[in-house]
């Protein structure tokens, strides 16, 4: 238990301590001899904690040392690359994961595993080797309080750099190691599935369940899986691997019953056959983190079974979890680890202390109840949403996919009978029909709780499912109630808070008052993975207003999915085209329109109905928000011509505490007269890291410095929050939530919080 806690604790460290000092704490356990009995467990727990933390810190330090050296950042080098995993096609070429071979001197001055983008030409097959020139850079992703953390995922996968192929690569002889052979086998199977079933969603699902390649599953299907709580079934995870291992073990057991007894006990053959099947399926799935986790867990269980040690189920559970983290301490970054082990613990908790097992149907209902209750807190903590239909959807989908479709996928891959693939596709089609029906059920969204409520909720869930009688269940419900009723703090009267979300090369600003929420722009379509999770995890269930500044994809591209997920009070648009795809009523932004929420004033300043221009940017909605302690000006993508119009009309009336920089800091905006009129203390520039447009332009940054404005950038600070209370403050997510694995700003412009 202490070892697991120590490995987990490493996630939240901003800096890594010296692991040797931590290792010294491991002597606390052996040194407890002769001490009172009640002291020894605490010392052994502390020793395990020190040992686990030392192990995780040492592993993290080794990985930090593998990062791309600063001297190679942006440089072009020539290396021999071996393709690992299957290539992923995109709109502008394809990307592939490659392993870099050492240079002629045998040195490796760069990460061994990098993600490479190839603009065109021949597709790089799995297991192929290429000599190519690549321009290197460290991996970087958006940084926001909630939602998918791509940087943590890349870190846990040991993908520490990316590259762009320059010029024409030259193909060499294919790799012949075991990993390359397995990858080529996976590629052949995926190719056959596509050839037989075509480019269909059923083919994409069959490919995902057979070889773990999920790149052909559309975003719409992923949303469908998330709304029904069956996403875990689409990835080859512990459920699938365990089911296949169990099926093979059962087959071996039935076969051994027909043979005479031998020297080796039948249980050993049964355990080894199941473990071998799990290992083979895990390799076929690309040896991903979920499959590795399951294989190690089964290996521990098989070892204990063969060893015949009398251990309690919970002790086996702790040993299996510790073994997984010993082999792969970075598995703690994946929610699947905690969901899978947590559900196993829930099923064991239901039966603990019972004199006899319940009957079949009662046991199934109790197991479903335990799994549903124990999944509440992790789902709220990780995803801020509970699909209410999930128990029913999983009750049908788990046996359908794990016991029927997955084994049939493997059988169809092993036998050259196309009819088996068509049968598998027909079963997948039935699965889609069922979950499409389930997706009509409502989602229960809950704000992400602080960690004390999270811990209290986990304890309450255990009390709820444990066989402790009605009094125990009532106590568990009381412990769980604070998490289910938690409401994040909001600004006071006359105050507001604005968060410029890190959506890459785009813009999305969320403004909160005491009882109202407004979203200004949604970013690119892919930004839905950022905007919606952050709104839901912060307790937003309805947007009182959505402002789509103008009809450009980096400003209104994520609107369709947002409108589908959240009710919208009023839709304001700079151009009607932004609303046409949404199919809902809207209002045009016009100068002079005003409203007030909770003592905070909102005023639209642009576009003018008589303005004519060929570009979309000139029609951006310009919104000014002012409260008791400060004001904010949001200017969309307005060019210099519109800035001049605003200065001529409003002059010093534009003065604001903060400015959302027009057009991401492009040189076509942020003219000196406009900045002098606004005179902001801060300017927030929403731009993608090393974007192809060169935003923000150096000239624009000089303009901001000339008027004494601090230019804060989402590509460096992550999401930026402006709190207009007394006094106004601003903070960047990368500085307020530092982690040893998260890239820090090259130049933040100051501390994590600023005051004018």
TrEMBL record:
The record's subcellular location field reads:
Cell membrane
What are the Metallo-beta-lactamase domain coordinates in residue numbering?
Answer: 505-689
Q: Which UniProt keywords apply?
A: Cell membrane, Membrane, Transmembrane, Transmembrane helix
- Protein topology in the membrane: Multi-pass membrane protein
Question: What residue ranges are annotated as transmembrane?
Answer: 41-58, 224-248, 268-287, 294-310, 316-348, 369-389, 395-416, 423-444, 464-487
Origin: domain of life = Bacteria
Q: Name one GO cellular component term.
A: plasma membrane
What InterPro entries does UniProt report for this protein, alphabetically? ComA-like_MBL, ComEC_N, Competence_ComEC/Rec2, Competence_DNA_uptake, DUF4131, Metallo-B-lactamas, RibonucZ/Hydroxyglut_hydro
Q: Could you provide one GO biological process annotation from this protein's UniProt record?
A: establishment of competence for transformation
- In Swiss-Prot or TrEMBL terms, this protein is called Competence protein ComEC
- The source organism is Paludibacterium purpuratum
